[in-house]
Write a structure and sequence with these properties.
single chain, 301 residues, alpha+beta, Nucleotidyltransferase, domain 5, 10 strands
């Protein structure tokens, strides 16, 4: 495994990329990037396998971060491993630059989810010649932008564009299906809150402003109630999804490209369930890298 990593990885990577390029008609115009965490069951941490934020809730376990870069339809371009405590937002530019230069990919449109939405990435992507479509956290936008979002009236499948002060386009889309899902999740969590309130299990000692606890109102020393005003305000966001972009594409085309990210997420799920990649028995970085590359970096023939 170590020999494969040292002497053959680049060659295998090139063969895999050329196959992907052939499947996509000879051109890579759009790339999709996402990350996951791979934890180690019974292993002491070292300089590479380090506890960090785990997407699987295994925060005490040593882990590595894996970034996967694919083309249209989920065909792989390459993957990279990072130390387990790396901030995922810091991985995007290095991965793009490595594969753009090594495989001579003309600057493609980059599509990534909101986990890669950082000020540094938003600045560095255009500086390095990349157009991008990144999932936006619309509730975290500036107050002036949020006021504009709330005033928008959209029907199912419609979009609107808000121009931010940094000249980026914030595409806002509305979906009946998403609104139904948002309401379902909210109703389910509110029922849990109401049940805990009625039973006396919810007290000031375990209140925070995270998630649906934000809909609670504390009065005096012990009175806790559902804040219906906050709930009504939050319902205005049901069904809305934001996409931050600097491309010249129409909203529908940008959203269509963004939704292809589910294919990476599907690849992560399949590898962790059907392929049962855990536990990882390799300890050394080169062997771990080769093992995960063989799973994620090669086309599914």
């Amino acid at each position: 495994m170590a020999k494969l990593n040292r002497s053959l990885k680049d060659e295998i990577e090139t063969i895999s990329f050329n196959y992907t390029k052939k499947l996509l008609g000879g051109r890579i115009g759009v790339v999709f990037y996402d990350m996951t965490t791979i934890y180690f069951e019974a292993s002491e941490p070292d300089d590479f396998r380090v506890p960090g934020f785990s997407k699987e809730g295994k925060h005490q376990n040593p882990q590595v971060l894996l970034g996967l870069l694919v083309g249209k339809n989920g065909y792989p371009i390459g993957c990279e491993l990072f130390e387990g405590n790396t901030f995922e937002g810091h991985t995007l530019i290095p991965v793009l630059e490595r594969y753009s230069k090594r495989l001579k990919i003309k600057k493609p449109i980059v599509v990534a989810d909101s986990g890669l939405l950082s000020k540094a990435n938003i600045e560095q992507l255009p500086e390095n010649g990349y157009e991008f479509i990144i999932g936006a956290r619309i509730k975290n936008e500036a107050t002036s932008v949020k006021k504009q979002v709330i005033k928008i009236e959209l029907q199912n499948g419609q979009f609107a564009i808000i121009r931010r002060t940094d000249r980026l386009k914030l595409h806002i889309g509305y979906s009946d299906k998403r609104a139904k899902k948002d309401r379902f999740n909210k109703d389910r969590e509110l029922k849990k809150l109401e049940k805990n309130l009625a039973s006396g299990k919810l007290t000031k000692a375990n209140i925070n402003n995270r998630g649906y606890n934000n809909f609670l109102k504390l009065e005096g020393k012990i009175s806790i109630n559902i804040d219906n005003e906050k709930l009504e305000q939050d319902q205005l966001w049901d069904g809305l999804k934001g996409y931050l972009a600097n491309t010249t594409l129409q909203s529908s085309n940008e959203v269509d490209k963004y939704t292809n990210l589910w294919k990476i997420e599907k690849a992560f799920r399949i590898s962790k369930t059907d392929f049962k990649i855990r536990p990882v028995y390799h300890r050394l970085k080169e062997r771990t890298s080769t093992y995960l590359y063989l799973i994620y970096g090669l086309p599914r023939l």
